[in-house]
Write a structure and sequence with these properties.
Length: about 100
């Protein structure tokens, strides 16, 4: 008597959830000089002069601007670095983070 061995032809791939990314958001204020905002964006977020200027002017006109998305830790560290750069120069510059949908 012959035995038929049936093996599954497909491998089960466990679904791994990708970690949610977090947005870093720049908030406008009335006191921080535009040029200072651009300098911080270039230093902390590695932006070109052009990119930094566009992000700064967007926040200036609309109130906020999303800068980039990172893992939670990196987003929070960068937001703190940017906020601290403003604080140590005496400006109320503020960056916040928010999880992506
Ligand atoms: N509104 C500031 C000014 O007129 C400039 C500014 C832009 C400040 C963007 C913060 O996130 C900001 N000097």
């Amino acid at each position: 008597m012959s035995e038929t061995v049936v093996r599954p032809r497909t491998k089960t791939r466990p679904k791994t959830e990708r970690p949610r990314l977090h947005k870093v958001i720049l908030l406008n204020d009335d006191y921080t000089p535009r040029e200072f905002v651009v300098t911080v964006l270039k230093a902390v977020f590695r932006m070109s002069e052009d990119q930094a200027y566009r992000v700064m002017i967007t926040a200036h006109r609309r109130g906020t601007c999303v800068i980039a998305v990172y893992t939670k830790d990196v987003a929070e560290t960068k937001a703190d670095e940017g906020t601290e750069a403003g604080r140590s120069a005496g400006y109320p510059l503020k960056f916040t983070t928010e999880p992506e949908e």
